[in-house]
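Record 1 of the preview.
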Amino acid sequence: MKFPHISWNSIRFKLVVGLLLVTVPLITLLLYNNFYSIRVVHNQVALSNKNLISLYMGQIDTQLRDAERNLIGLMTSDYDIQSMNIPNSEDEYQLAKHHVSIKLSSDILLYKSIDAFFVYSDSRSDLLDVFKLNIEFAERDQVEQELHRILGSHPSLKENGSRWFVRKIGQDFYALRVLRSGDLYIGAWVNAKTLLVPLNLIDLGKEGSALLVSKAGELMISTDTLPDGQIDLTKGFEHFYMSGSKNSLLIVGEPSQEGNFSLAAVIPDRQILQNLPNLSRLTLFISIISIALLPLSLFLLRHVLLVPLKRLITVMKRINDGNVNVRIESYKASDEIQLVNRTFNHMMAQIEELKIHVYEEQLSKQKAELQHLQLQINPHFFMNSLNILFNLAQVRNYELIQEMTLCLVRYFRFMFQSNLTFVSLREELQHVRNYVRIQELRFPDSLTCSIDVPDFLENIPIPPLVIQSFLENSIKHSVTLEEPIHISVSIDLKETGLEPYIEIIVRDTGKGFSEHVLAMIRSGNTVIDEQGEHIGIWNVRKRLELLYGGKASISCYNGFPQGAVVEIKLPYETKL
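->
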């Protein structure tokens, strides 16, 4: 995949980043505020219920502690217990057992949190237990059998330190306390349902529930049916936590100081938060909608602003390349964008019109300058021509005077067409041959000239007097009476890369250019020597620059073994 390059300084980048910098922090703050509010409510509710649970757990521990103290008192100071422990006879044991039963029956009424007291003789496997009146026979029988099993078959469970321990007997959980004194085990037990009775007074809301939990995290009993069967009660109760299949229940509890169980409260989250879940869902919905609308916002931003801006930039790039005639096409957009487009198109129309006027003025100026440059040659040649006629008149060679006069007529007829920017190569070569003939009449037997050009190039347009100017320069600086001079003109079509060009080479057999003259020609200045200022080469170069810009070139150098060489390269154009 290719990703477009985006400038950090572009309006598109700044708008998109600005939109994200505004929306993302707002959405983040909204979500954080929502979760923070929920956390604060959870903390407050958990703290309140923690204090309430701790209060009730303290009451339960106090009652269990009082019952335990009563058992210790019986074990250490009661005469009948001591008689049952070390009886002198069976009758004494039975009498002591009867007295203990009476005493325990009166004590059981004082402890509302205790369901039964018992005394177990290990040597006789005899169990004495006293129950409250509300205990059913089936439950009594089931607990007695479990006590026989615990105290008779598992000595390791007979002692359990100073703590109440939990046992599941049948379908119910019980808290038991066992103390040993010689041959006797004195203890008490209470059904978890009995411990839970005071907890029904706790207001945990319509769906809240109080429960007793064993040390292993097993549910002993609860005031109401739990709303979720997947509650984890094994994490301890040092801190509150969320549990349930969807973490929708607040769990808070307090461990007992007297037994290996805990008192806990389970409160549904929807009851705690009340309307806050709706607000939370609304906040989440708004956040999701905001995030979902963010691409739409970016799309609208792109459609309303970025795309029109891109179209404007595209047109401006084309204008920067020189295409001032391009315009922004009409399309459905905002009023401000349409106003910008109309204003831009109107401005470009005015600029195009102004550029046309400036271009026409430049063309007029270039044409006037070109005509002036062409006419600069005429006075110089006119003086030379009159000098030739004068010399011929002196020798009274009337035939040559007639030929010379005819050549001059043709020459000046061509020169008087000074308003022409281009002529065909055929016309230029006819003029060159006519000019060479004039010079041959001036320097008989001292000048020869050859012209080599393909026939298919005779119709191409070239600037007038380009070839003739360099022929004139060669004749002026190379022809002498001591040694004949040959001038050759070769014209051909060349091609470099994809652009063909016309190559014109003017070569003579004279002494060539001096280093001083070559340096001045290559610098683009007019040639100045002891004979004065020479503007021929500078004239042609200036004309070519006006007509072709940088597409034409002139190179001057010395040939081998001698002679001056001028290379002219013109763009290949087939139409005048």
